[in-house]
Amino acid sequence: MDKIHGGQLLARALRNEGIDTIFTLTGGHIIGILDGCALEGIRVVDVRHEQTAAHAAEAYSRLTGKLGVVAVTAGPGVTNTLTAVMNAQYSGTPLLVLGGRHPIQQEHTGGLQEMDHPQIFRSTTRFAATAWETARLGEYFATATRHAFAGRGGPVFLDIPLDVQTSLVADSTQLPKHYRPTDPSGADTDTIDEITNLLAGAERPVLFAGSRFRARSAGALVALAEAVNAPAYVNAGARGAFPYGHPLLGNRTRSQAFAGADVVLALGVDWDFRTGYGRKIATDASVIQIDSEPTRIGWNRPAHRGIVANPGRVVEQLIEHPGIVHSGDREWTGRLQAAETERLQAANIAADAPAELVNPEFFGRTVAEFFGTDSIAAVDGGDIVATTAKWLQISTPGHVLEPGPAGTLGTGPGFALAAKTVFPDKRVGIVFGDGGFGFHGMEFDTYVRLGLPIIGVVGNDGVWGNIKSFHRMFYPERLVATDLGRRPYHAMVEALGGHGELVTRPEALLPALERAAASELPALVNVHVDETSRASSNYSG
């Protein structure tokens, strides 16, 4: 009877789930998993730090709708993923961490990197367990996957001892089938009727899509906004769900729209610090909140109507309803559009203002123009990134990859790696602050080794700008640990075999970005920008 090892059996389960790529930093405790992937034709992408591998797996999930998978070795290899796992938990992203573990026969003997990993992960995942039997690896995988996709989705952890990976089982060992729902659940007919009537009767409706509004329903969102003539706003994972330049897409007027709205349709939105906790919505407005996660409905902002369902599927149901027409105040929508134009003009004036180095608004506008509408941009935290995000023109759902509510710095290199792996023919870039670059900038070595022409651009003001501004508000006489200095990050990338450039004048920025693209190498453009003085309110609420 033909035999296969446990790592190959697990890889077959991954392949049956539709997973074609995993991310890793190699180690002795996962050799069975990696060998199994090689045998089953699953691509293994290896990086320089386990946290990057886990961030890449999260981005793979966001970009494909599949389960993102990262395999890491025992002990510090596993614990190095914790920050990325937390990020996926906050973002509601299905992510599987496969952790190597010491052999069962070495349990409680003080073996190399012996650790009870599931105990560590139970507070940051939806499921964490050890797979103790080789023949049952498919069952363990099915259970973990069910938890990863349930509700809003999130990370799971599966611990696999080395001898479970390497032990042999019959090649004919059966794997579970049909172990999780695959069709998104919508709302019942009466609920769709009710929402339709509220939207059709509204004078000032607003649509707002957030992190749990998935890309597959982007066309339906545009159609719904057009049907009811409602301004639409997107944030977080929903960025790109509206094409750039669409007259109903709002970017700089969300607070004004919320203050004047009589009906707000919230689709997969978290009323957290990024959305003003829902407090900017008029107190007498009706909030229709649709979310796959029941605990998010009514959180911080009461919902007039709360519906537990897939937000995208509900939008698809709404546009199929014959009563979804607008009869309200079209002038109000026009006023918001006029305000958008006015604020964009003001931003352009600010971008063109003289600066000693590169004006942050000019930086954001130029970078956005360079990426255009069809690129994928990983935005990696900081004031300069927040400024740039306002200018981005990317019009493909899910192609603006941001950290999410955790605000994790260092996501950019992993997110971009996944993007270039999934979409090799697209331009993929990372927008860094100089603080963010310091976390995982060494992954440019990975890009060089794998031949991935990812373009990074650093807004380098030499400080932890957001923190320094906030610190100054309380203790201006003592600014502690806030200065970085303008380091030659581009030279590091050049030394690794990539393309690097330093930019200190605004007129040099776009040509530098174009040369970076033309090099067809992993590239970093290091831009000296003026220090900003904008303090964040994220800490105070």
Give a description of the structure.
The protein has helices at residues 6-16, 31-39, 50-64, 76-79, 82-91, 117-121, 137-149, 162-166, 189-201, 218-228, 254-260, 311-319, 330-351, 360-371, 383-389, 412-422, 434-440, 444-450, 465-474, 489-495, 509-519, and strands at residues 3-5, 21-25, 43-46, 68-72, 95-101, 128-130, 155-161, 168-170, 205-209, 232-234, 263-267, 286-291, 305-308, 376-380, 400-401, 428-433, 455-460, 499-503, 523-528. It has three domains: 3-170, Thiamin diphosphate (ThDP)-binding fold, Pyr/PP domains (Rossmann fold); 189-336, Rossmann fold (3-Layer(aba) Sandwich); 352-528, Thiamin diphosphate (ThDP)-binding fold, Pyr/PP domains (Rossmann fold, 3-Layer(aba) Sandwich). Helices cover 38% and strands 17% of the residues. The longest helix is centred in the middle third of the chain and has 22 residues, at 330-351. The protein contains 21 helices and 19 strands. Helix 1 packs across helix 2, helix 3 runs parallel beside helix 5 and helix 3 (50-64) crosses helix 16 (412-422). The chain is α/β, with parallel strands linked by helices and 541 residues long. Strand 14 (376-380), helix 15 and strand 15 form a beta-alpha-beta unit. The strands form four sheets. The protein has a six-stranded parallel β-sheet with strand order 3-2-4-5-7-6.
